[in-house]
Structures are given as structure tokens and as C-alpha cells.
Model the fold of this input.
Amino acid sequence: MSMASGDTIDRIRGFWDADAAGYDQISGHYPQTPAEWAAWRGALEPLLPRAPSRVLDVGAGTGFLTVAVAGLGHDVTAIDVSEQMVARLAAKASAQQLAVTAIQARADEVPRERFDVVMSRHLVWTLPDPEGTLRAWRAVAPRGRLLLVESVWGEGQSASDWIRARGRRLARRLAAAPTGHHAEYDESIVRALPFAGGLAPERLVELVQRAGWKTPRLRRLTGVEWMLGRQLPWPERLFGTQPVYALWAG
Ligand SMILES: C[S@@+](CC[C@H](N)C(=O)[O-])C[C@H]1O[C@@H](n2cnc3c(N)ncnc32)[C@H](O)[C@@H]1O
Done:
């Protein structure tokens, strides 16, 4: 690990420590209703092995994937670089009596154990070395599966996605709705991240293969989009949700 990447990780950690308290405010970050949880469970369950399996959630944040997947009967180890995020996740898991181990750790320094699944949502864009990190995950799940849950945004968007995203942003601004983040990454962080501007599904497939994961599959999570879209306030609802998809590979 270079000094430069260590500095970047420290700045990223500071950002997410400050973000943790407000992160769960919007449904794009954390489900707000039983119906949203149900839609997510319906999307995730067919993508996982039969429970109980050993699952590693990387960049687990406040615990969205961890809580959903532990709730389906899997044993989840959750890691995140941010102490504040890990504290929130651990509190949720303990309140819900879920089989979860929560650890503060970097995404490229995963526990040296064996996992059936390595999963992550909304992390790859903020990794300084996404390919090397995905390779490190392969090493702890040589016979297991990768499951990435992603949204399409920024440079990954099609023209029509872009127009809808502009409409949504305007509607949220007019309604003074919370964005779910306390700030944006500063330039010094953005410069160190190859996908800080967004990552198209096509590029993610290539990246995953280069990192040693075989036979990637893509699926748009329309059930999740449907439920998130139904719960958007007006006039934001006119523009629908960001595309949400899963990539899994063996
Ligand atoms: C956009 S949030 C996603 C959180 C969660 N996966 C979710 O879906 O809500 C990104 C998370 O990745 C964590 N993170 C960022 N860089 C990381 C790294 N290099 N190693 C471990 N965690 C990291 C942050 O602390 C933050 O909790």
C-alpha cells in the first residue's frame, strides 16, 4: 500500500464518519418502510446460496445489506473503514438479535477467513484500487460468489437516465428534501478514485472479470425500483428512481 493511498483512505474515513449520523434519512440509503424491506428481500434471496451461508459485506455502512441478508438467515461479517458506520451497524444488529460480526477494516484488508459470498453495495466507485480490491475478495471466497448491488448514476447513465436524474434533483431541491449526505468528496479524494464520476454496468462487468471472478450475471432489480418509485413524494415521483441492478459472479 502506498502512502498516497493511505492518506486517501484516511480522508475517506473522515468523510464517512461525519456522514454516518444522517446517512439513513433517505430510502435510497436505507429502507424506510416494511414494503421496501420486502422488495429488497425478494430481490436478494434468489441471488444468495441456501441459508445459512457465510457472507462478507464490504463497506457495509449503516448495515443495509447486512441487516437484509442476516434477516434471511445468513451469518454475516460486516466490515467498514468508518468507525461511526460500524458502530451504527453493530447497534442495529444487536437490537434485532442478528448473527452479525462487525469489524472496522479497509475493503482491501478483508478478514482471512473463507466466505461463501462477498457482497457490497455502492462501494466500488469509492475505491482507489477497485480491481486489486475485488481480487482480494476473490482470495477469501475462491469457491464462493460475488454479489454487487449498484445504482446507475453519473457517467454510468444513459441519456434518458440523465434527464430523469436532473428532474429528480430539481424536484428534491424545490422540496428542500434531505440528500442523505452532509457534503461531497473534495477534489483531493476524487482525483484518487478511478470511478468517482460513476461506473457503467458494462465497465463493472469487465472490471469484475479482470479481478478473477467468473461468468458475471447482471439483473435489473425492477421489484426494488417499483417499490422505491411508489414511495417517492410528488413531484419527484414523475421522474422515477435511478436504475438499480445486481451483478453476481462465481
Ligand atoms: C455509499 S456508502 C454504502 C454503505 C452501504 N454499503 C450501503 O449500501 O448503504 C459507502 C461505504 O463504504 C465505506 N468505505 C469507503 N471506502 C472504504 C474502504 N476503502 N474500505 C472500507 N470501507 C469503505 C464508507 O465508510 C461507507 O460506509
